[in-house]
Amino acid sequence: RLDWQQRLGFVSRAPRWAIAHKFPAEKAVTRLLGIDIQVGRTGSLTPVARLVPVTVGGVVVSNATLHNEDEIARLGVKPGDRVEVQRAGDVIPQVLRVVEAGQGPAWTMPETCPVCGSAAVREIDDAGREDVRRRCTGGLICPAQAVERLKHFVSRKALDIDGLGEKQVALFFEKGVLKAPQDIFRLKTNIEAAGLPPLEEWEGFGAASAKKLYSAIDARRKVAFARFLNGLGIRYVGQTTSAQFARSFLSWQSFWAAVKAAEEGGVGSEAYNDLIGIDGIGQAAARALMAFEGEPHNREMLAALLDEVEVEDEVPAATDSPVAGKTVVFTGTLEKMTRDEAKARASALGAKVAGSVSAKTDIVIAGPGAGSKLAKAEQLGLKVMSEEEWLALIGGG
Fold it and tell me: What is the DSSP string of 334-373?
């Protein structure tokens, strides 16, 4: 029924009316040697099966995800067992079942972080449900979280410091000269204080690359509100939520004063209700901000970081532009600006930038290679523009 297909429509990646059939994934049996714990940026503890290497679908697999402690209990798996594994979707190795139980004792999830020793807890959400993941409460004092948060802080969606990628962050962390975000802006001083050779003498660096890195760091001493907040890596406060807070408060000082007031007043206070009253902001984000502010280590880090950088005020969105109040979606390749630049410019002109096409979308800007979003826009009869037409509309041609 083609009419049913049209009624069901599309999501961003695929039509709702279609399913993909795949050949059954290839499976193999091997022995589980042990279960290691990985600690992520937000403190989540993920158990990973360490396996006797085995070939699955043409790839040698030596590790496989076990997801969480509930999944381990469901499988009844423990070190010493012979287990069946497959590559889920022919990509991610996973343990399917126990084929033959070993003689070892049952495995239990640690209740402390294996990296920093802080308590690892399963949080309770607003509905009283227990999180399936256990999380380290150490925050920035946990080395595993610290290095991942530092990588996030300098990433493209946050401060975007040219020349300071994951490899460099890991190196500086290992050398002890980069432990917290503020250390980025004290890098040269920290290297000298540690008695290490100048950066230009390090392997992989030279005079030109060291100078370029220091210049790139200094260029980020002024940073946009939304990028700064997103860079802090607070759970539930990502790129979209950060931008929403920036548009609502305009200045960092007024925003963080509101967070402090909510933390002091607690859930249900007027300040808390003001936060969750912002369009698109939920209780999880508000509580995460309050928890961040309530942690002394975070307050000390933030104060030190603000001594090094200036968070720029958000420019109020225009209300008299031809796209003010319109919902726009970008799809395909843009040739005269990056996708991030296009989104930022649209937001500054008062438009709401969405990630998917719906009946509420006003304009779809489609470049070469536009796919399902363009098809859905045409199906819904929405206004579709080329990049040139969009630039002409907003006065940027």
Answer: -SSS-HHHHHHHHHHTTPEE-SS--TT--EEEE-TT--HH
CB proximity list for 234: less than 8 A, separation 6 or greater: 288, 289, 292
pTM of the model: 0.70
Give the pLDDT confidence of 189-247 residue by residue, as tens digits. 999 999 999 999 999 999 999 999 999 999 999 999 999 999 999 988 999 899 989 98
Q: Of 312, 345, 367, which residue is a domain's last? A: 312
Structure tokens at 240: 């979209």
Identify whether the C-beta of residue 177 lies closer than 8 Å to the C-beta of residue 200.
Answer: no
Contact (CB, 8 A) for 134 and 70: no
Q: What is the CATH number of the domain that holds 198?
A: 1.10.150
Mapped onto helix, strand or coil, the DSSP state of residue 7 is helix
- Give the span between the Cα atoms of 87 and 81, in whole angstroms: 19
- Residue listed under structure tokens 């709401």: 352
Alpha helices in 157-268 (DSSP H): 166-174, 181-184, 187-193, 207-218, 225-231, 239-249, 252-265
As a 3-state breakdown, the chain gives helix, strand, coil percent values, each rounded to 5, of 40, 20, 40
> Is residue 322 included in any domain, yes or no?
no
The answer to whether residues 339 and 387 touch, using CB atoms and an 8 Å cutoff, is no
